[in-house]
C-alpha cells in the first residue's frame, strides 16, 4: 500500500523532501573558482518523496522508488570574479509537478489513473493475468491502447525530471517565436525530458513550468508512448535525434531528427519485429554517420498493455530473464535515412551509453555502454534499499565496449554479430557517465561518472575518470583487467562525500580533452556537518583534485541529470 502512518524514523539524507527555493540565494564559496568559469548549471531530479494527506497530515503517502520522486528543477548561476568582486554562485529551484503533489495529498494516495515508474498502488497485483484484467475493462486491444494514450496529462501534474535540453528545436516560445530564432545570450527555455513521449518546457531563468508537449506536437507522425530521455544532438547544426515507440500488437519504432535550423521533423527509419517488442529504453546514441537504438532485454509484457494492469513501468517489465533472447543494435543512416544493419549480442540491460563513434581506421562503429547482467538493478533503486546505510553491493554498471563491423547498406538488412572488445571490472563501476562536450559522438579518450566501492555504503562515494585509450591498451594484454585499474582510472574520493553526476565545463581555448572542470553536487555527511550539507563541487578534470566548492544551506536531493550552458 502507498499510504502509511507517519513515522519519526530518520531517513537517509539525500532521499528526502527538499525545500523549494524560488528566490535566488548566494552560496558560500570555499577555494577559488576558475576565473573563466561563467554560466549556468541546470539539474533535475526528485524533490519530494513524502506527501502528508490534506485531510489527515498524520497519514503520509510515501514514494517508493527513486525514479518516482516528484520533480524539482535546479539552477546554479556561476558569476566569475571581476575587479573588486570574488566569484559568486546563485542557486534557485522550482517544483516541476506541484499539481501532482497536491493531487496525492488530496487523494491520500498516488492517483490510480496516472502512470509512474514503479509506484505500486493500492489493490494492484503486479502478477495478475494481464489479458484477463484488460478485457474485463476493454472490448478490444485497440480500445485498451486508446485508453493508455488518453491518460491524464497536464503541465504541472506530469512528472518530467530526467534530462534537460536547452532551446529544444521546434518549440514555440511564449509570444509565438520559435527556439533558434533571433538574437540571444543563453537559452530562452529548457526542456525537461523523460522515458516517455512527454516534454516539459521550463523558463530558463525561473525554472517555472510553461507548457507540456509531446513530439507529436512538433510533427503528428511522432506519435507513440515511449521515447528515450537521453536523446542526441549535433553540436554544430543543433539537429536533435531520438525515437518514439508506438505500442500495439506489433510495436513500431520511429527514429527521427528535428532540424536545428527550422524545427522541422524527419522520420529517418521505422522498424518492428519479434526482436523489437515494447521495451524500457532510457537512452540511444549516434556517430557522425549513424543513429543507433539498442533494444535490450527490458521488455514490457502483453504488447505493452501490462501498463494498464500495473500502472507502472517496473512491474510491467518481464521479470524472467531469457538468456537466449539477444540484445539487438539497430543502425540507421543518419544522413540518408533507412535501416542499414542489425547487430545482435548476448542479452544485457543498460541505462546509459558512455559514447559512440566511427572508428577512423576501420569504419567500425564503436559503442561504449555501462551494462548490467539483467534488470535486477531496477529493484535495487527502491528507496528502502537506497536509504539503507549498511554495506551492500553497488548498483553501478560496468563499462563495456562493443564493435560493430562497418555497416554497409545492402538489398536486405543484414543481421550481424556485435563483438565485445572489453568489459571493465566492477572495481571501476561507473554510472551517470559524461564527456567533454565536443567529444560526444566522436573518437574520445576520457569519460567521467559516479562510482562506488564494490562493497560500501550509500548512493556513491567518488567521481571516476576513465581513460578509454589506456583501457584498450590494457585489454590487449594477456592479463585480466582486474588489478590494472590504476592504468586507466583515476578517482576523486573524499571521506563522507556522495557526489552526483559530474558535468564537464570546458576551459575556453583549452588545449586538451580534459582541460576543464567537473561540476558535481555532493552530499557532505562528515561529522562536523551534522545531518549533512550539500555543495557544488568544482574538480580539475585533468588532475581530479577539488579546487573549490559552493556550500548550500540545505540538503540537495540526489538527482538524475543536468546540463551546463
Describe this protein's structure.
- The chain has 565 residues and is mainly β.
- Helix content is 10%, strand content 35%.
- It contains nine helices and 36 strands.
- The strands form eight sheets. Strands 3, 31, 32, 33, 34 and 35 form a six-stranded antiparallel beta sheet that branches.
- The longest helix is centred in the first third of the chain and has 10 residues, at 98-107.
- The chain is globular.
- InterPro entries: Carotenoid_Oase.
- Its cofactor is Fe(2+).
- This is Carotenoid oxygenase.
- Residues 168-187 are annotated as: Disordered.
Number of helices: 9
Principal-axis shape? globular
Strand percent estimate: 35-45%
Integer-rounded radius of gyration: 23 Å
The percent of residues in helical segments reads under 10%
Report low-confidence residues grouped into runs of 5 or more.
1-11, 130-141
Task: State the oligomer.
Answer: single chain
Number of strands: 36
Q: Kindly state the mean pLDDT as a whole number?
A: 89
State the major sheet.
6 strands, antiparallel
Sheet/helix structural class: mainly beta
Distance between the termini: 42 Å
List the helices and strands and how they pair.
Blueprint (H helix, E strand, L loop, with lengths): L2 E3 L19 E2 L1 E4 L7 E10 L1 E3 L6 E4 L7 E10 L8 E8 L2 H10 L22 H6 L5 H9 L13 E4 L22 E5 L5 E5 L5 E5 L1 H4 L7 E2 L4 E2 L6 E7 L5 E7 L6 E7 L13 E2 L3 E6 L10 H5 L2 H4 L10 E7 L5 E7 L3 E10 L6 E8 L4 H4 L2 H4 L11 E7 L10 E3 L1 E5 L7 E4 L11 E6 L10 E6 H9 L12 E4 L4 E3 L3 E4 L9 E9 L8 E8 L4 E7 L9 E4 L1
Parallel strand pairs: 21-25
Antiparallel strand pairs: 1-6, 2-8, 3-35, 4-7, 4-36, 5-6, 7-8, 9-10, 10-11, 11-12, 13-15, 14-15, 15-16, 16-17, 18-19, 19-20, 20-21, 22-23, 23-24, 24-26, 27-28, 28-29, 29-30, 31-33, 32-33, 33-34, 34-35
